[in-house]
Amino acid sequence: MIQVGINGYGTIGKRVADAVRAQPDMEVVGVAKTSPNFEAEQAVKKDFPLYAAVEERIELFDEAGIDLAGEVEELVEASDVVVDTTPSGIGAQNKSMYEEYDTPALYQGGEDADLVDVSFNARSNYEEAADADHVRVVSCNTTGLSRLIAPLEDEYGVEKVRATLVRRGGDPAQSGRGPINDTLPDPITVPSHHGPDVNTIFPDLDIDTLGMKVPATLTHTHSINVELTYGADTEEVRELLKKESRLFVIPERLAIDGSGKLKEFALDSGRPRGDVWENAIWGESLTVEDDELYLFQAIHQESDVIPENVDAIRAVTESADRKESMETTDEALGVGFDL
Amino acid sequence: MIQVGINGYGTIGKRVADAVRAQPDMEVVGVAKTSPNFEAEQAVKKDFPLYAAVEERIELFDEAGIDLAGEVEELVEASDVVVDTTPSGIGAQNKSMYEEYDTPALYQGGEDADLVDVSFNARSNYEEAADADHVRVVSCNTTGLSRLIAPLEDEYGVEKVRATLVRRGGDPAQSGRGPINDTLPDPITVPSHHGPDVNTIFPDLDIDTLGMKVPATLTHTHSINVELTYGADTEEVRELLKKESRLFVIPERLAIDGSGKLKEFALDSGRPRGDVWENAIWGESLTVEDDELYLFQAIHQESDVIPENVDAIRAVTESADRKESMETTDEALGVGFDL
To answer: What's the number of CA atoms in the CB half-sphere (13 Å) around residue A289?
Structure first.
């Protein structure tokens, strides 16, 4: 069993912990957190050994009556792999600690690409993470773009990708985020960072991305244009994408018109936390004309990277090949809606 | 003086009335409204003769103590041109009335293109409206796209336009509109109607448009990609667009990051109702690379078609050529920010 430590137990960390526990070949050694709050209490309730991420704050846990299993260094030492799910920039600060204990570490998309040996998307470049010490699981948007591009690149070749990302103003729990009643070019310059980030997965890809922020919290929504190298028609591309386990082509009959109904559908389907691990592609929008593909997809920012983190654990430990890992992850989590 | 009647006195009609009154060569004969509300009372306060648009509702005006100048047929008969600013679909119902009195009529973008002799955008096809009986001033989004395409087509040629339109959920006063906290592909199919609508102005243009609705009310926001036929660089295109009176390239120094600050700027500038008659193009976003232009622009849905309605009046009455009309309209309204 691969012993996995999780440093950070917020939006991503708590999901990674549940996903790792669900795998047949992994165990959660423990999770680390900086301060006690409702998530810390739930970690204890779920019997995840809880470690203090910052020594100076140990007494806060004592005051809150939360028992600690130890300090984060002990967690790192006891782990075969650490998944760092701390806020952007903190992962970079933690790097020397992981090196000290010689524990391979996975970072999240908010860290710089040059912090790590390899940026990772399971479908696109699983093999490159073999035996790496520092791996970055790319961000939710880059994951969503990479998953879509990979089968198109394999099957038809991609001349150019142009994507407009309508970004949620914040996660549902980020109550202080904006904008309110506004649409902000964000960033206001072109391209946004997402295109170059996709190039960490597909170095030679011609891709331009533009970002805007809007007053919505449920998902990001992408407006995608892909110029294909070889001819294709709409139905061929639909069938190709439907074969990918982490692409969910929403059937028209479900009448899911936006992020709200998509999330409601995920909750009704019994998904933990209402998570949508797949890219959710609106079937009606999927259109190919003159070798140009257009579609809309929703990206659930809190959860689409979770299966990727699980696969990255197997990739760095070389404990399974891509196909085997993705199938195991998907089976254990329940990726793919039962339609 | 051209005698102008305005049928409908809502979001567009009240702005057209003010804009026509501001012109040196036009007079407002009167405005017609279906029922009494705050806008009807303001029309009377502004000394616009008020006509009942529907005979059966005359008593509602009597009850509200609002004096009427007559019924809409009298207004149509007394007018050289009627501007129909009624809700989508009502203009089509009114067509026979305008024909009965042999009064040329201008309709708004919500009517079907095949209702009219010509769809109109001043910069792009002013001359085609000469002596027409039925002219449609295209919608706010189509106006915004046409104004941008016209100079690019003239100067560089356009191979293809790809635009994602992030649409406001409703006008500020449409308090019952949604979505709330959601991003809706709208329409969910590709292309949206905007591309074909631009083809009523540029019949041979290759254009694909995608639409989404978000919980914001202040403006539409367009993410634009234009493949140019002939080479250009960013600064050349910026200078070209800055020369167009109805394109406002927002200077970086103003630090206008979204629709909210744009509207605040318009209000601070003393614009009536805070209107932004121009396409507002974010200067920082304007980027040309490999002959592809990208930019973001805000389209103020309540007001960008107002100068176009005024020009359409001169176009159908053949009382001025394009250049003269646009200059007169812009001067009388105050189009162009004093920076």
So the answer is: 10
